[in-house]
Design goal:
Distance between the termini: 60 Å
Order of helices and strands: EEEHEHEH
Strand content: 15-25%
Shape: elongated
Structural class: alpha/beta
Number of helices: 3
Helix content: 25-40%
Oligomer: single chain
Largest sheet: 3 strands, parallel
Strand order of the largest sheet: 3-4-5
């Protein structure tokens, strides 16, 4: 098969998959998000947050697979109570996903969660 013949035209740069809209850069624990920061890998646990062992195991698995930020659901007081241990032992920043209870926001902040 013959080699393609160049026409002397400049090559077009590759098209981005999507254009990022301008945003403000913030820190979620040690991970920069928004602005010109690289896109971060985030996920959410599927365990009951109050099951500290299972939640930490899942966070460890997510971390090993390249996850940089993890969200944990916090719909109950038991879940809010578990946040302190989870946030302390997690290798990546933990975001508390609060479900309609403002008092859990304060528990998450006191527990050391990276964001709410």
């Amino acid at each position: 098969m013959p080699e393609p013949v160049g026409l002397g035209l400049p090559e077009l740069p590759p098209r981005p998959i999507a254009v990022r809209r301008p945003s403000r850069r913030i820190q979620v624990g040690s991970v920069a998000v928004g602005g010109d920061a690289p896109v971060s890998v985030q996920s959410m646990t599927t365990t009951r947050t109050s099951d500290v062992g299972a939640t930490l195991q899942q966070i460890a698995e997510l971390t090993a697979s390249g996850c940089q930020i993890v969200r944990v659901a916090c719909p109950t007081q038991d879940d809010a109570d578990a946040l302190a241990v989870i946030a302390k032992k997690s290798q990546i920043p933990v975001i508390a996903d609060i479900h309609f209870q403002p008092k859990y926001v304060f528990a998450a902040i006191d527990a050391g969660c990276a964001a709410v």
